[in-house]
Design brief:
Elements lengths: L6 E6 L11 E6 L3 H4 L4 E9 L10 E4 L1 H4 L5 E12 L9 E2 L2 H15 L2
Antiparallel strand pairs: 1-2, 1-6, 2-3, 3-5, 4-5
Length: 115
């Protein structure tokens, strides 16, 4: 399996603690492909259903279903960054982001990290 930057997968994030996003969620791969090919971890941003986030914040990026390949609008919570073992990922991706939308996610992550 080849996990690439911009790919979206549905991944089971359990077990979690506290305010971490739980359960099976869409995750957007942020780590660069050179790292994704190594036996390390894959860095992702966690997504949630758009209906769960009624307001827009500078820490989130709202993505229409048509732009992601997912079946519903998704909000990527750019303050919810996680590094996951590649064994958590299913064999098939659920969608992909690129171009302007991926750049918006990158900007929101930089905002959240103060970079």
């Amino acid at each position: 399996m080849s996990i690439e930057r911009g790919d979206i997968y549905f991944v089971d994030l359990n077990p979690v603690q506290g305010r971490e996003q739980a359960g099976e969620r869409p995750v957007l791969v942020l780590s660069i492909d050179a790292i994704n090919r190594l036996p390390l971890v894959v860095t992702v941003v966690v997504g949630t259903k758009g209906a769960n986030v009624p307001r827009d914040y500078p820490t989130n990026v709202r993505v229409a279903a048509a732009e992601s390949g997912l079946s519903i609008e998704t909000v990527f919570l750019c303050f919810q960054i996680r590094s996951l073992d590649s064994n958590r990922f299913p064999s098939a991706k659920a969608g992909k982001l690129s171009g302007r939308i991926l750049e918006q996610v990158e900007a929101a992550v930089r905002y959240c990290l103060g970079l």
